[in-house]
Design brief:
Structural class: alpha/beta
Number of strands: 11
Helix content: 25-40%
Shape: elongated
Bound molecules: nicotinamide-adenine-dinucleotide
Mean pLDDT: 93
Number of domains: 2
Length: about 260
């Protein structure tokens, strides 16, 4: 199986290239912007159409502005697509959906297999543990440079709990408690964000009842878990029919988006 990498000079692209070589699959090569310095010894393609023609599947960690072009060229060439780029506008997402009618696409905002398993388990725990008895709290810790809180993954975990409970997440979300907040509202899904040091990403989902606590923690130590998940998705795409798949599909679990 020949796997190409769009954005091969980037932080994710480099790791994806390493992971492809580690699996024994063929690294077809990659694309990068003119000023980028790609890793040594790889075939550099002039653009996505050339890469699409040379690969069975393209793993893409680039920029949202590339998504519409990539969707058109990969669909036109019949090349499968693993899309990790985030920050897509609605119109980009529509282009992804259109491509997925012609080729197989795996799209995930978080390719870490562990995070996707946590999302699936969060939904099941939410369904199993009644909101009246089990208070759901999500704690995330990230490095000091992170500008948003709670993290996107923390919010995805909260959404999964709400989905499991058949409840509307927006109405239950509570964060930034400070001062005289009043008692905890039944069914609320609470968020606490810790920032400091160089933590890549820690997430804990806690269900606190009067007589027991259940805690589920995921720790990411580096980006390699995302790269490994993306390559796993690329290998899974072999001979898949057209469609828009999630990492949950790759993992053989109930469909949930990261
Ligand atoms: P990065 O800036 O290190 O790398 C992106 C690379 O793509 C850069 O070298 C850039 O020059 C290049 N690029 C941009 N447009 C291109 C194009 N049209 N053709 C070829 N190359 C192009 O960023 P990163 O940390 O590798 O992240 C890239 C994207 O992946 C971001 O959207 C990020 O949010 C996302 N991401 C997703 C996951 C996940 O698990 N889904 C994990 C990490 C990052």
């Amino acid at each position: 199986m020949k796997i190409g990498v769009a954005g091969i000079a980037g932080r994710m692209g480099r790791l994806v290239a390493e992971e492809i070589l580690g699996t024994g699959a063929v690294l077809a090569g990659g694309t990068c912007l003119p000023d980028d310095v790609p890793p040594a010894g790889i075939s550099r393609f002039s653009d996505i159409s050339a890469l699409a023609a040379a690969a069975d599947v393209v793993v893409d960690f680039t920029h949202a502005l590339s998504v519409r072009d990539h969707a058109a060229f990969l669909a036109g060439a019949g090349t499968a697509w693993v899309l990790g780029t985030t920050g897509l506008a609605d119109v980009d997402q529509e282009a992804v959906a259109a491509a997925a009618r012609r080729v197989a696409v795996v799209q995930a905002a978080n390719f870490s297999p562990g995070v996707n398993l946590v999302l699936a388990m969060a939904e099941r725990l939410g369904a199993a543990l009644p909101a009246e008895a089990y208070d759901a709290e999500i704690i995330d810790m990230h490095h000091r440079q992170k500008v948003d809180a709670p993290s996107g993954t923390a919010l995805a975990i909260g959404e999964a709990v709400a989905r499991g409970r058949g409840a509307d997440f927006a109405g239950l979300r509570v964060g930034g408690r400070d001062g005289h907040t009043g008692a905890r509202r039944t069914g609320a899904i609470g968020f606490s964000a810790i920032r400091g040091g160089q933590v890549v990403g820690d997430h804990t989902l806690l269900f606190a009842a009067a007589d027991e606590h259940i805690a589920l923690t995921h720790r990411a130590f580096d980006r390699r878990s995302f790269a490994r998940g993306a390559v796993r998705a690329a290998l899974w795409l072999r001979d898949r029919p057209p469609g828009l798949y999630s990492m949950m599909d790759v993992l053989g679990m109930e469909r949930t988006r990261a």
